[in-house]
TrEMBL record:
It is a peripheral membrane protein. Residues 341-372 are annotated as: Disordered. One of its GO terms (biological process) is peptide transport. GO terms for molecular function: ATP binding; ATP hydrolysis activity. One of its GO terms (cellular component) is plasma membrane. It comes from the Archaea. This is Oligopeptide/dipeptide ABC transporter ATPase. InterPro entries: AAA+_ATPase, ABC_Ni/Peptide_Import, ABC_transporter-like_ATP-bd, ABC_transporter-like_CS, Oligopep_ABC_C, P-loop_NTPase. Gene3D superfamilies: P-loop containing nucleotide triphosphate hydrolases. SMART domains: AAA. Keywords: ATP-binding, Cell inner membrane, Cell membrane, Membrane, Nucleotide-binding, Translocase, Transport. The keyword Repeat does not apply. It is found in: Cell membrane.
Length: 372
């Protein structure tokens, strides 16, 4: 059953410098119990999408159009009282920076207990007991004592765990995690991700995981949406995305993942930077950075299509991508291929030019004719 369905969402920010096109015609859905990854560089529109679902877009931002259905009800048409009853209760969010998400002048435990009292109508003693159980569940040591500690008395990892406990306090149906491991070390990152995964399974919660790290997505997600400059450029089940990436931007992201045992002097990168969202490039927004771009890419904005047929995807289409290659408008095509390498510890999926001369994932063409 579809829990969340976002259709044609467009969000803009009206600034003194101009109109920022933060999210454009975005559509996706999340099923109950699903773990849905949203990936892309900074500025891709990932966090704006999450804040739109929570209806937390504030001036100068404005949701221009679209529909956000949660359990069949349009969040954008709800009253403030209705959305407040859902926010933090049925839909919770783990914010990117735990230090700013926690109020510095209130004990951590009291902040969590307040949500429980508000949404679940618990008494003070029962709310405190549930809070201590949650703190213990997410791995806060000596939870009864730490209940009364202030945020500055928690380490970065413990603050992040407290935010997760707060998000899970009311057994939400949907948990939105916005870069949940940004401020923690790699050891704590692994623990936080494991806790999100196990707790989501325990509470039968759907998860929308926002990240720029495809390695994290590979570990815990079922499906993935890749965003670029406010638009989705590829959607696929996680295994298909890694074994058969269809968009050059996805290949570029995969190529930049550092690997143990990599003997290259420098990591592969995508040339250039994310475009100015006030003045987006014409045609395909990725074309200034794409080694396969042709003249058609500067004129035509590609739609999401079924790569196999080049036509508008059906409702049950699982893998879709926005590239003119699949509508027959590119002359030279995309000359990379996927290589699967066996190792003693894992199976590595890499993309490389068809010549096979480069082993790692690489966003480049075998000749210079495709650059625009």
């Amino acid at each position: 059953m579809t829990l969340l369905e976002v259709t044609d969402l467009t969000v803009k920010f009206y600034t003194e410098k101009g109109v920022v096109n933060a999210v454009n015609d975005l559509s996706f859905s999340i099923e109950r119990g699903d773990t849905f990854g949203v990936v892309g560089e900074s500025g891709a529109g990932k966090s704006v999408t999450a804040h739109s679902v929570m209806r937390l877009i504030e001036r100068p931002g404005h949701i221009e159009s679209g529909e956000i259905l949660f359990k069949g009800e349009n969040i954008l048409e709800m009253s403030e009282a209705e959305i407040r009853s859902i926010r933090g209760n049925e839909i919770s969010m783990v914010f990117q920076d735990a230090q700013t998400a926690l109020n510095p002048v209130y004990p951590v435990g009291e902040q969590i207990a307040e949500m429980i009292r508000h949404h679940l109508d618990y008494g003070k003693a029962d709310a405190k007991e549930r809070t201590i159980q949650l703190l213990d569940t997410v791995g806060i040591p000596d939870a009864p004592t730490r209940y009364s500690d202030y945020p500055h008395e928690f380490s970065g990892g413990m603050q992040q765990r407290a935010i997760i406990a707060m998000a899970l306090s009311c057994d939400p149906d949907l948990l939105i995690c916005d870069e949940p491991t940004t401020a923690v070390d790699v050891t704590t990152e692994a623990k936080v991700l494991a806790e999100i995964e196990s707790l989501a399974a325990e509470f039968d919660t759907a998860v929308q995981l926002i990240t720029h790290d495809l390695g994290i997505v590979a570990d815990i997600c079922d499906r993935v949406m890749v965003m670029y400059a406010g638009r989705p450029v590829e959607k696929a089940p996680v295994e298909e995305l890694y074994y058969d990436p269809k968009h050059p931007y996805t290949v570029g992201l995969m190529s930049s993942i550092p690997r143990i045992g990599d003997d290259r002097d420098r990591l592969q990168t995508i040339p250039g930077t994310m475009p100015d969202l006030i003045e987006l490039p014409s045609g395909c927004t990725f074309h200034p950075r794409c080694p396969y771009a042709e003249e058609a890419c500067t004129r035509t904005e590609p739609a999401l299509v079924d790569p196999e047929t080049g036509t508008e995807p059906t409702n049950d289409a699982e893998h879709i991508a926005a590239c003119l290659e699949y509508t027959g408008e590119l002359n030279a095509g995309l000359d990379y291929e996927v290589q699967v390498r066996e190792s003693t510890t894992d199976e590595r999926v890499e993309a490389a030019p068809e010549s096979g001369s480069v082993a790692e994932t690489e966003l480049s063409s075998t000749d210079g004719d495709h650059d625009d």
